[in-house]
Amino acid sequence: MSRFYPDAPRVGVSVLCLKDNKALMIKRGKEPYLGHWSLPGGLVELGETLKQAAARELLEETGVQAALGEPVETFDSIDRDEHGKVVTHFILTVFRGSYLSGSALAGDDAADVAWVHTDDLENRPTTPGTPERIRRLMLV
Question: Are the C-beta atoms of residues 16 and 72 closer than 8 Å to each other?
């Protein structure tokens, strides 16, 4: 099923990985939101649990492993075109975890990767709601 103009929502995950009071972020290398900074993540594969998908996507996109807990948030990301037709619809579950190992390097769908302090979130283009989500979930 296509990510664009799908006939059903796509299920995805993202990870708030924390180290030294900074969040690991990726610069998106593909649409939607090409060039915007976001939490690492992606789509759940058939037969994979949400947590397995989160760990896999984090490792594939950043080379990092984290101690993931239970999900901390689930939300809809729906974009419509000028005619009101759904362009993308993702149901995203966010996991939070502390850095365990690995050197942060951009891989898979990521064009870049960075450890970002909350004071620096406004200095870069981000996917909708990402700065607020990071600040809120860092307190969980």
Answer: yes
What pTM did the predictor assign? 0.93
DSSP for 36-96, please give it. -EE-SEEEPPTT--HHHHHHHHHHHHHS-EEEEEEEEEEEEEEEE-TTS-EEEEEEEEEEE
Over the stretch 28-87, which tens digit does the pLDDT of each residue have?
A: 999 889 999 999 999 999 999 999 999 999 999 999 999 999 999 999 999 999 999 999
If you count them, how many residues does the chain have?
Answer: 140
10-138 CATH pick, 3.30.450.40, 3.90.79.10, 3.90.380.10, 3.20.20.70: 3.90.79.10
